[in-house]
Design a protein that fits this description.
The chain has 140 residues and is of the alpha+beta class. It has a single domain, classed as Alpha-Beta Plaits (2-Layer Sandwich). It has five helices and four strands; from the N terminus they run H-E-H-E-E-H-H-H-E. The protein has a four-stranded antiparallel β-sheet. Helix 2 packs antiparallel against helix 5. The longest helix has 18 residues. It is globular and about 50 Å long. The model has no long low-confidence stretch (mean pLDDT 95).
Length: 140
């Protein structure tokens, strides 16, 4: 089974080339590790093992100030589970909607050194993920 933890160079290029205008919303589907794996970022590891969900909360706590400083915000956080319509063997632990004022603001946030310093919490937490950039359509 293929897992997805970060954007590929091709996906990043395609995202920029979409030239989305105005605010964007990032739909995040997240599946956590049972126990967080800090082997790639031991400097961030807590003194005792924690769950992937707990590591992701560390990521949120670290990230929110940088996200808000860049013009973005966390607009929805929800507990997931199995699909009602979709593959019966696929589950997502957390669904997150992140609003950003523009693609440019998102890219600036995503490359901010302060933000990047805590990215290891996300890496430790996530077993698999999906990230779908959305542009808002007017409601009828």
């Amino acid at each position: 089974m293929t897992t997805y933890l970060e954007a590929t160079q091709d996906a990043g290029r395609a995202f920029v080339m979409r030239r989305m205008q105005g605010q964007i919303v990032m739909l995040n589907l997240l599946r956590f590790r049972e126990i967080a794996d800090y082997s790639a970022h031991p400097e961030l590891a807590p003194s005792t093992p924690i769950s992937g969900a707990e590591a992701f909360q560390c990521y949120i706590d670290h990230t929110l100030p940088f996200l808000r400083e860049s013009g973005g915000d966390l607009t929805f956080l929800g507990a997931g589970a199995n699909f009602l319509i979709g593959p019966s063997d696929e589950r997502w632990d957390l669904v997150m909607l992140v609003r950003q004022s523009s693609v440019e603001s998102f890219l600036a946030f995503n490359s901010h050194q302060g933000y990047l310093a805590g990215l290891g919490h996300r890496t430790a937490a996530i077993e698999d993920s999906r990230l779908l950039p959305l542009s808002e359509l007017p409601l009828p």
